[in-house]
Design a protein that fits this description.
Largest sheet of chain A: 8 strands, mixed
Number of domains of chain A: 2
CATH topology of the largest domain in chain A: TIM Barrel
Helix content of chain A: 25-40%
CATH architecture of the largest domain in chain A: Alpha-Beta Barrel
Oligomer: homodimer
Structural class of chain A: alpha/beta
Strand content of chain A: 15-25%
Number of strands of chain A: 19
Radius of gyration of chain A: 23 Å
Distance between the termini of chain A: 30 Å
Largest interface: A-B, 80 and 80 residues
Shape of chain A: elongated
Chain lengths: 363, 363
């Protein structure tokens, strides 16, 4: 009944991306990062599809995300990047969620839980350059090794800061720091490679890979051909088409002047739906194979495109316009370029009025 | 149990803003625009508070929003800016939702509904310069007046393109066009003034005002003192604090170098939560009255601030940092300036992981 924008997510393409990453990765296991609702694409359906394909380990950001995922997948391994905050300890233990311990405070918080709950394991994050979360290497150096046992640390992890740039000097510095730290934690598996890390040399691979962006079709490397499949297609219906009866401005602030006879197609997605306002007077959309340049400011609930070149027979109210990810059209990375950001922010900001639709189409 | 970011919305401040706008407006009635989930603040609680304060007319963007609002408020007047799309006609009629008819197609779609349903009224949108939705004035000129009766048009509306700039020449042109059109629709009330329009001269007021942004504390006028109350406060917990043990970079891409001894506070909101990535190395947050500059790139789930100047006694895991709208801190318009956008996009993009909390605190 509702005429609504949709984001069609091809679960088969995500699975194909995961399998390709798992084949590329030289270590033991390839996990999946599904935080932030699987980058906005839908944590539960995405994770269920990956679990069915053989993925056993999932990373989320928060305990709340982990509990939602646990309901859907009772038997997989779920790790929480933010670690365990005060008051969250028992929920982690009860639902067999694994905190990524980031600090001595979190180690101290987990130790009594690990003592009392035989299934309560943890991961330990060593911060080799992000400066964000994790134990600094100097701090890990002085940590008594008994903490690893007492907190039942089952994974050592670190996070690459510049992995998409294979020539960045920080990569080697981070690798050296993690290699040194992991020697102290001998026998405990190590996770280092995010999407970009999988495409660095095998030295960076260690045991467990945890790709995120590349699962969703975002390029894992800068300045390289993107080997991933596009996975999502954002379409929105045309609300109205008009031919201008005189030269006039379009939209707020009168930032765009169009001549008489311009066909303006007004489409039902705006910045409240995550079509970034910075795309104003940039970008374009597609109606079938026909490219339509964006006209004027992106508004909260609508955006206008120039449909003058589209054949009359295809132009009608309710026709679906591709804003992102159709085969002729704009990849998530290309739309992000137009918006001066990265594909991650495009996907994670697609709003709730855009209905997620799941398909399984061979790629 | 969850350690989570929150957006505390002060319903009393929204009501106070609405009352101030209603007092400023010279026409008959002041409505409220609550589309896009009341600009991200929560359509149902915001609308309920306004209805309790005497607001009787609400504008949303889509039928789906209207139906959600109808469940919460059975007796108010609800108008849908997008108008009636094919297949939506009976839902409008059944739930007494009023479409804003934007085109001859929508007029033709509504006419049989208005004929069959005695309560099925409509509004008619005349596009005086936006170039987006609505009947062009030339088209309205040639429209047979019987359509107004047959579609039971109960409101004529138009939308100002440049209202926040009181000196913009388009304002007067739009006013002239609407004045001419409304003469043809004599006896039907007219709505023209959005937030900015309420602060233009009384010529712009007509019968029904429909403020949006100003209800939520966003400045209705450019280059003027903002008379509105701030209404929302975004807080996020500190996940970890560390003092750097050597000069180092913070975050992805190593875009920010901090000296040894810098206290970095990592906070649980990122661009997936609507803390725009473009704020990278800009903006700041507050811990109480202490200002903390932003460090490095905004990431998906976290952002880092420089807490070096914050007294040790106030720095602890779980402490709540103000990202937006505390009394000492950053207004929504100021954060929008940092992000090269407008307050509307800040509010509408605050994500679902940020829990909405409603309070009623006198302003």
């Amino acid at each position: 009944m509702f005429v609504t924008p949709t984001l069609t997510v091809n679960l088969s393409a995500i699975v194909a991306n995961w399998k390709m990453l798992a084949n590329t990765f030289a270590g033991d296991e390839t996990a999946a990062v599904v935080k932030a609702d699987a980058y906005g694409l839908g944590m539960v359906p995405v994770s269920q599809a990956l679990a069915k394909a053989g993925c056993h380990t999932f990373f989320v950001a928060t305990l709340e995300e982990a509990l939602d995922l646990r309901k859907a997948l009772p038997n997989v391994r779920i790790l929480v990047f933010h670690g365990v905050q005060a008051g969250e300890e028992f929920a982690f233990a009860t639902h067999k969620i694994i905190p990524v311990l980031n600090s001595r405070e979190q180690l101290a918080r987990w130790k009594p839980i690990a003592k009392d709950h035989v299934h309560a394991v943890s991961a330990l994050h060593i911060d080799t350059a992000m400066g964000r979360l994790g134990l600094q290497p100097e701090d890990f150096d002085t940590l008594d090794a008994s903490w690893l046992t007492d907190c039942r640390v089952s994974l050592i992890m670190s996070h690459l800061a510049c992995a998409p740039d294979r020539h960045h000097p920080l990569n080697a510095l981070q690798l050296a720091a993690l290699t040194k730290a992991s020697a102290k934690a001998a026998g405990i598996p190590v996770s280092f490679a995010n999407s970009g890390g999988i495409f660095l040399s095998r030295d960076f691979h260690f045991n467990l890979a945890r790709p995120g962006c590349s699962l969703y079709g975002i390029a894992p490397e800068d300045n390289a051909v993107n080997p991933m499949h596009q996975v999502a297609h954002w379409q929105a219906p045309i609300l109205q088409i008009r031919a201008t009866t005189h030269e006039q401005s379009v939209g707020y602030g009168a930032t765009c002047i169009v001549p008489k006879g311009t066909k303006v197609a007004t489409v039902a997605s705006g910045y409240a739906d995550g079509y970034h306002r910075i795309l104003t007077n940039k970008s374009c959309a597609y109606l079938g194979a026909h490219k339509m340049p964006l006209l004027g400011r992106v508004t909260m609930d609508m955006v206008c495109f120039d449909a003058t070149q589209v054949p009359e027979s295809e132009l009608k109210d309710g026709a679906l316009v591709s804003l992102l990810g159709n085969r002729e059209g704009i990849t998530v990375d290309a739309l992000a370029d137009h918006a001066s950001t990265i594909g991650y922010e495009i996907f994670t900001r697609i709003g709730t009025r855009v209905k997620r639709v799941y398909v399984e189409e061979a790629v």
